[in-house]
Hints:
Elements: H1 10-38, H2 41-62, H3 65-71, H4 77-109, H5 114-121, H6 123-140, H7 144-168, H8 173-194, H9 205-239, H10 242-276, H11 281-308, H12 310-318, H13 326-333, H14 336-351, H15 355-378, H16 382-409, H17 413-438, H18 446-463, H19 465-468, H20 473-479
Amino acid sequence: MAAKGRTPLWGASLSWQSLNVLLQVILQLVYIRILAELLTQEDFGIMAIALIVVGVVEIFAQVGIGPSVVQFNDLEPKHIASAWWFSAGLGLLFFGMMFVLAPEVAHHYGEPTLRPVLRWISLSFVISGFSVVSRSLLVRDMNFKTLTGCALAGMVVGNLMVGLTLAYNGAGVWAYVSALLVQNAVLSLGYLWFARVPLTLGFKLSRIRQLLGYGFRSTAFNLLTYAAAKVDLYFVGEKMTTGQTGLYDRAVHLMGQPITVLGKLGDSVLFSGLSSIQTDEDQMRQVTLRAMHLVALVTIPLASALVVQAEGVTWLFLGDPFAEAAPVVQILFAAVAFRALTKLGDANLRALDGLRAGIGIKLVFFIAVGAGVFAALERGLDLQGAAWAVVAASCLQWVLTTGWVMRRLGLHLAQLGTALRAGIGLSLLTTGTMLALSLTWWQEAALAAALGALMLLLLPAWMAPAWTDPQGTLRASLGRRIPAPFRSRWGA
């Protein structure tokens, strides 16, 4: 267990968690791509509704115990033992509740298959209840090497082995259900093995009370975050057919993959690291600006490129059965950069316990998404109108979250512009190049254009290194790898 006064291991943690997330995203995209050929849109629609219901309930089932274990500065073994017994009991309780309520939920949606699906998926409450504290200890200690191993084992065994085998044998939606349960079980066994909890210390109500204050605020924050991310799918499910719901669900899932990468980094590495330096405001400012620069440098050009190539990306990862989702995917990709940068702000909100303000921001986001999607569908704008509403709400959420971070850490608009400008500039260059290459009369000059674009990308870094790398960390790293005569220009 990490002691008070933790020193964040940024380099190793980011390396391992980046590898973890990258491999997970690749494996998940391969898995979903194959499932898209084997399952129907109705199967995906049923699973989407089931995961919404279970996802909301699971937030209450954990009551923020995991984040509290990561964020609490004075954590002791008795806190850990009490948290484990508490979360295990809640997992069993909520499994029983969902088992009883499953028929009512299935009746509401008019999908009889939802009843057994919900009952089986609700076993995940028990699984997570037994393992959430162990996982949180690994995150607190920034032991992302172990977390990577557990995650990959769960993906390979659950999705690739169990899920695809059942899907090939015609199991339909049950292939998805089985893969999810097996993946969660493998993950939990790994967490429990590597992060041992002192169970013999038993349950102490006084220790749980110390964790629950932050835990309740975290629960409200996570609930609104999850609800805002799913309210669009809820209204689509209410207003459109099951097939259209499945189509929209896959479009949202595809849009969410880049955000998942940043989200998992933010929810683990950044949250844990920032929590450990929460009393050092100068260091918080430095880390936040550096992270914002790097996130912008990656996600803004990525979002632009995805918008331009949305049709090809949709076909690549969803296949011909979901080709009609391409226009929806193209619109949703415009929200990627806003969502990714918001994840950075969320990490600050949680580490500094600014959750009261965070709850207000998430509530505004939830209302914006829900009202926007509902209005779009009522006016007959269909799935594309819903997607535009999501993009607009995502932009509003980023403005509010970034505004809080700037005020809390004493940052200025000039510092924000410095952190974002390299990403915006690179986005303009890459997008312009891709659009030029897509024109028929440029096809013969494709190689020359590509070489020219490469030179344009390298020129700003050479002529104005401080502009593209204001924190100087990339130059320092690269400087150690370039010939000595050129090092002075790069600040190495």
